[in-house]
Amino acid sequence: MVKPKVIFANRVYWPDESATAQLLTDLAPALVQRGREVHVIAGGTGPAEHAGVTVHRTGGDNSVRGLRARVASYWRYLRAARGIIGRLARPGDCIVIKTDPPMLAAALTGPARARGANVVQWVQDIYPEIAWQHAGAAWKPLLLPLRCARDRAWRTSAFCVPVGDDMAKLVCARGVAPERVRVLPNWAPREMEALPSSQEVKALRTASGWDGKFVAAYSGNLGRVHEFATVLGAAAELRRRPEFRFVFIGTGARHGEVAAAVRRDDLENVQLLPARPRAQLAASLGSVDAHVVTLLPGFESLVHPSKVAGALAAGKPIAFVGPPQSALAGFLRTEGCGAVFAPGEAQALAATLAEWHSKPERHAALAQAARTAYEKHFRFAHVLAAWERLLDEAGGGDRNDIASTGARALSDSRSAVP
């Protein structure tokens, strides 16, 4: 039997290497290899085919900066994507809507359902709540209509697929039935399935000036939802110990703020590096001694740090600075592969990193636990199989019959995954 088309909607896709683009660049071709017809609606310009995936480009520039330019780029994508869905979707097709740009669910769910398609919401970030968490309560009344439209899209979809348990709780709180919610984690880059060679790691450490150093790295987007004061405070605590190096790898909205703090406080043990290309990512993640992941309190239900899976795949312990009660914090404690710090606990973070350095056997045990957690929860083959089952269910009949045809309830999902 011919399977219905799978149509992904996301502003970024290959050759873009941002986080959501990389995930989709892994998943879409893998589904093609398993006999599915797959399309991607992506912004910008570029090839119309990639590894068997048909790519529908909406034009414009995905790399624009500045609020007005971004809003214009988002609006162009939303309008064009609605038109493409109107031409492309057929009854029974499965349309997977991601969350770039914000409010994509509200814009595309109606047209998709009008064409008789089954809709799956792949929830990577939760807007407009992120916006009013940043802007404050004064903006909430202006954003409430957007939330209502988003909630309506979620509730009328076959499934919502948040990438973490905290996010899943919020989705259910907005009126989505638990049996329509599946927690499927983001996986590590597929290049991480095998650990990088010791020769690659040694070469990169030498080229970076890390020989003889214990390197704690923050690798990824330096975004507005992340916390950096605690990490910089730990660097200040260890500034007189030349064996320690703190590294920020990547760019983002708060990169300038971090760079300014490094200069102001004369933190010579802090190094800022550009983002690594995907071809070098395995060696980059594997060449440090510990990974630092951060999240501002209040955002644990709205975003999930995608860098977690890569750090675990590299077999490195994670120092998490963020809400201690979050699902991610609980996951690290349960799996025994890292440590948790509330924002402001710079001394504790510094002391823990110093302990990991001074006790190689302890560090090695944490590293082994990290790789084990990756094998158990984040290997791509496992998540791919779960996506295939979900797509089959989403295309299998009327949405009102899903609960009675064996859809797994939220309480039965992989609750160990943050």
Describe how the helices and strands are arranged.
Layout: E1 6-9, H1 19-33, E2 38-42, E3 49-50, E4 53-57, H2 67-88, E5 94-97, H3 104-114, E6 118-123, H4 129-135, H5 140-155, E7 159-162, H6 165-173, H7 198-208, E8 214-219, H8 229-237, E9 244-249, H9 255-264, E10 270-273, H10 281-286, E11 290-294, H11 307-313, E12 318-321, H12 327-335, E13 338-341, H13 346-358, H14 360-377, H15 380-394
Helix pairs in contact: 2-3, 3-5, 8-13, 11-14
Describe the structure.
- There is one protein chain.
- This protein is α/β, with parallel strands linked by helices and 418 residues long.
- It folds into two domains: 216 residues, 3-Layer(aba) Sandwich (Rossmann fold); 188 residues, Glycogen Phosphorylase B (Rossmann fold), CATH 3.40.50.2000.
- Helix content is 43%, strand content 14%.
- The strands form two sheets. It has a seven-stranded mixed sheet, with helices on both faces. A six-stranded parallel sheet has the order 10-9-8-11-12-13, with helices on both faces.
- It is globular and about 65 Å long.
- About 5% of the residues have low confidence.
